[in-house]
Design brief:
Radius of gyration: 13 Å
Helix content: over 70%
Length: about 55
């Protein structure tokens, strides 16, 4: 996986975790849901990149 994409996807996952935690802390279900969505997107992109890398080798 390219280092840039790996960092970008990990950042999206981390950003999602922060949003989810913040949403829980302030009782904002919408923010919490957005955070979970960003985490899922970041994780999915990481898995896709790993799959692409596995096929290349």
């Amino acid at each position: 996986m390219g280092a840039g994409k790996k960092v970008k996807n990990a950042a999206k996952t981390t950003k999602g975790k922060v949003k989810e935690t913040t949403g829980k802390a302030v009782g904002n279900e919408s923010l919490e849901a957005k955070g979970r969505g960003e985490q899922a997107l970041g994780d999915a992109k990481q898995a896709l990149q790993k799959g692409k890398d596995a096929l290349k080798h």
